[in-house]
């Protein structure tokens, strides 16, 4: 009999999906790694599992212990599911501006959820700093201790993507891959996948797709953090400081992608290819198109399909919300 022993074994080994329209448009083969198929619905299940396994091995996470994390939501969903499966507790700190659907999902899963105002990273009440403080409080009072997962700086994040996401892409492409592009939230995916692919073939071109208002495209071009014009409605990506994980990324091309550039890919994918994705996937696909244009026809480029669109139905697929932000809506989307 073939069966998975537990939910951890459902994480990863996701397929690569041929993205037809953008491949035809560019003359390249553009492939998306279907991370929305993970049990928690996003690529961040891998991060949560990687951080848990590393903390167990280091003896920091003890049986029955608590995992505390600041998150845009998806990592929190991963930690909550894995804590249940592995006998831990979890606490999730999240900015209140994240989608209602992610908040609802965390409540459904029974997360110990702390919603905080959206503030700048410099503010001590930022969700990341709040998580660090809460973890220290819990560590004192919980019988089995508590850890702060610190996904932004924890090298276990990129290590998991290096050893799983990156190696899977290399194997699935049978070495025939010319480029990889993705956006960065913590930078774990970008650092891990770029490290794995460059170790196999240093000529593979790595690109970052940076949403409006984020600073990393400028950082990789010039070494200076400089926020790009505008802002973005895409959740889970777009940062203005160099995280411990970003510092390990190997990047050759940096693209600034606006929401207006990315959203039409999202709508066309749903209408013509039957795929309903979240906003970071749209930024990633737009980045893959830009890299394809730089490399020219005939190349194979991989990107990440991070999560599913129903997690953002009230924003990305809501014409009233989009109109209020002056963002494009497809003809079939009626108020
Ligand atoms: N897309 C989504 C939907 C996410 O939640 C995240 C993580 N915050 C990312 C992309 C970015 O991944 P990473 O943290 O590995 O940079």
UniProtKB/TrEMBL annotation:
Broadest EC class assigned to this enzyme: transferase
Annotated pathway: Amino-acid biosynthesis; L-cysteine biosynthesis; L-cysteine from L-serine: step 2/2
EC number: 2.5.1.47
Pfam family, one: PALP
Keywords, in A-Z order: Amino-acid biosynthesis, Pyridoxal phosphate, Transferase, Transit peptide
Gene3D superfamilies associated with the record: 3.40.50.1100
One Gene Ontology term from the biological process aspect of the record: cysteine biosynthetic process from serine
Matches recorded under SUPFAM superfamilies: Tryptophan synthase beta subunit-like PLP-dependent enzymes
InterPro entries on file: Cys_Synth/Cystath_Beta-Synth, P-phosphate_BS, TrpB-like_PALP, TrpB-like_PALP_sf
Keyword Amino-acid biosynthesis listed: yes
CDD domains documented for this protein: CBS_like
Catalytic activity: O-acetyl-L-serine + hydrogen sulfide = L-cysteine + acetate
Keyword DNA damage in annotation: no
Domain of life: Bacteria
MF GO annotations: cysteine synthase activity
Cofactor: pyridoxal 5'-phosphate
Tryptophan synthase beta chain-like PALP domain: residues covered: 7-307
PANTHER family (alphabetical): CYSTATHIONINE BETA-SYNTHASE
Protein name in UniProt: cysteine synthase
Organism of derivation: Sediminihaliea albiluteola
